[in-house]
Every structure is written in C-alpha cells, then in structure tokens.
Amino acid sequence: MCALGLVLLGTTAAAEPAERSFAAVARAIAPAVVRLDVAGNGREITASGVVLDTRGNVLTTGRSFDGAGTGASVQVTLTDGRRLPAEMVGMDPATDVAVVRLMAPPNDLSAARFGDSDDATVGDWVLSVGRAPGTEQSFAAGIISARSPGDLLLTDAQVRVGDAGGALVDLEGQVVGLTTLIGGGAGGGHGRALPINRVRRVAQAIVMEGHASHPFIGVALRERGAEGAVVTRVGRDTPAARAGLRPGDVITAVGGLDAPAPAELVTLIERQPIGARVAVAFTRGGHDHRVIVSVEDINLMSGAALGL
User: Fold this and answer.
1) 20 and 145 belong to one structural domain
2) How much is the pLDDT for 7?
3) How confident is the model at residue 165, as a pLDDT?
4) In the predicted model, what is the mean pLDDT of residues 52-64?
5) Tell me, what CATH number does 234's domain have?
C-alpha cells in the first residue's frame, strides 16, 4: 500500500516530474525500511526501522520500546514479508536512538543509503517512509518545513502511528532523518526527524561500545537572527556556569568557528571530544568576551542535564 501525500505544484504538467521522482525514491528506499514488532512486559508495539548495514544492525527510535523494556522480544519484517528474530543492541535516551540486530541477517539484506543531514535545507522535498500497522509500506511526500533549536528536522510529510523509526528521505533516495511522531490519530500526524548525522554517530557508539556519550556545556538557547544564539538558561554546576556564561549572553563562535544560530552551535559542540576545552566567544552588554569552556558528558552530569 502506498499513501503518497503529494502537494501539487500548480499544474498537472508541473506535478508529473515530481511524482515520477517520488516513485523512484520510494522504490529505491523500500527494501531498507522494515517493520518492528516489539513484545515485553505485557505490551505489544509496532514501529518502523531503517537497515543501517548488511551485518543486520537496524536503526529505530527508543520510544519503540516504551514500557516493553530492554529485554523485549523483537521481530523484524522485511519488505518481502520475511520475519526474522532480532535482539536489542542498545538505546540512548538522550537522543531517542536505538539499535537492534538481526540474529541471522540474510545475505540479500539491503542497507539504506545515507545523506548529509547538515545539508538538509528548509524547503527541500522529502519522503517519510514507514511500516504503519495494516500496510506493507507507507510513503508521504512533503518538505522540510523548519529546523528546531535542537536541530531536529520538522516536516509536513505525514507520519502515521507505527511509522516512527522510519526514514526521512531526500529525492536522491538518501536517508537524512529518522522519523518520530509529533501528533497522531486515525489520520496520522506531522512529524519531526532526528538528523541522520547525529543518529549514525550515536548508533556507531552503541554498536561499538554499548552506549553513547554526549558532549555538553549546559546552556539552553534561542535564535537571534544572524547575530548568534542567545543563552536563555545556564544549568547549575555545568561547564558553562563554571566558565561564567549567563542568561542573555549571545554566543557568536565556538572554537574559532562562527555559530550564527542554535543549530550550528549544537553541531559544533556535538563534534567536540569529551574533555576538550573550547573557546566560546560571546557578547554581553555590547562588549565582546571570550571564555574557555570544558566539554563534558551529559550522561555524567548530576541533575543539570539541560540544553546543549
């Protein structure tokens, strides 16, 4: 079943090339988007997943296991209907990323192609692809409508209940996000997607080490046009607090690189190794300042885990 929510581009002639592009993308991504049936603690949950690699690792959201527990049984259904047992590798509550692994991955397992979510731009066409209950596979077309301060990709492509954990795909057939549901119901809801660059970094850490660490300085932010990211809150006893940052400061650069908006600042901090000491440039009261801030793991902070 294919539920293509196409937005007409003004005329039938103009819409046809887009429709053909959507169909080609749908065919290309379909084998890499799977259904997950999770059972545990008396709960049965259906979600979607994206095949990360041919070793059998599958990306999904941690919410797919809400209430079922990490010891839940997992069955993965491929596009051709094969049902295969899988096991939990690990999940990361801070990012909502989880990885399961097929116990006996088939030789013809198809992994997704991944794009660069840093290049995903507001207005880009995307497809939301999932395996909602009662469908073989579902597709919905839309655009990236915004990027949130936490760098989530917001999309008007419909995400139905059960589609969460599926793929947000660009017109090259590359996965740029892992979808989650904002608001649901009989007709589904609009969605958001975890940027795939972040998802893959977290997933790689889960596969290699069993857990992920998260670079963190301890500020909450809002945008201030092209001038920088405004600090709205500083967590108590966080690296930012110890360095002297205050609410109202406007951060303009990290490590010598411009950070004109919260999304860019989030990316710069995420790419720092734990224990790094970075120069943070900011303005306060019309004057330029610079402090050195230590980058710590949010998982090790005690009660101060907020913001960036």
Assistant:
1) yes
2) 32
3) 95
4) 94
5) 2.30.42.10
Write the CATH number for 39. 2.40.10.10
Q: How many domains does the chain have?
A: 3
- The structure's pTM equals 0.78
User: Is residue 143 domain-shared with residue 271, that is, in the same domain?
Assistant: no
201: in domain: no
Residue 107 scores a pLDDT above 60: yes
Q: Are residues 158 and 16 in the same domain?
A: yes
Q: How far is CA 49 from the centre of its chain?
A: 12
pLDDT at 248 over 90: yes
pLDDT of residue 150: 64
Dump pLDDT digits (tens) for 262-288.
878 888 898 899 999 999 999 999 999
Segments forming the whole domain that contains residue 226: 215-300
